[in-house]
Amino acid sequence: MRVRMAFQTRSPQKNVPSVPPSFTRTFSLLYHEGTAVSSSHLHPVSVMHYIDRFPLLKFYRGFTVTVAGMIPYAGVSFLSWDYLRATFLHPDRTKPTPVADLAIGAISGAVAQTVSYPFEVVRRRMQVGGLTSPDRWLRWGETVSAVWRAGGWRGFYVGLGIGYLKVVPMTAVSFAVWQSMKRLLDV
Questions:
Q1: pLDDT in tens, 42-77
Q2: Could you give the number of structural domains in the chain?
Q3: CB of 156 within 8 A of CB of 69?
Q4: Residue 78, in any domain of the structure
Q5: I want to staple 104 with a disulfide (CB 3.0 to 4.6 A). Which of 84, 111, 134, 149 is the partner?
Q6: Read out DSSP for 67-94?
Q7: Domain holding 123: CATH number?
Q8: Own/partner pairs for 158-161, CB < 8 Å, 24+ apart?
């Protein structure tokens, strides 16, 4: 819903004045999007049949990309965290501090965001696909190809700077609180 509300800035009908998107209006538009199948589609009829039969499935566009993107994000985030702590905070020489935890968490978040950001771009494209192609269910391959055709490898990193503004502080605070609680609880 959030991605669609951010993307949809004008009315889908021509000659209708633009109204700011609301949750209920966006929900209704998503729910009632057409999913008619034409012979030119490569999708099995059964997929489109299920989408027509269960319109709530339209709210899960890009879900598989989201789940797949969690793996590199979490993996790289924890790998970076452990590697940086082991490299810069030796238990014999350096006492870990909350500031060090924040710094290492921030770097870990930035690295994880950079590695997993292409999944984010593909997911958002698939979610917005209901507006650009309401009668189709965009697949991974065609979405990745569209991003590549539009911007090459750089197309997968459009908006990364904004992503850093959200993820870096969130990851830094998350790891710092986690580490502080471990120290507090003597775990």
A1: 555 556 566 667 777 777 777 888 888 999 999 999
A2: 1
A3: no
A4: yes
A5: 84
A6: HHHHHHHHHHHHHHHHHHHHHH--TTT-
A7: 1.50.40.10
A8: 158/121, 159/121, 160/113, 160/114, 160/117
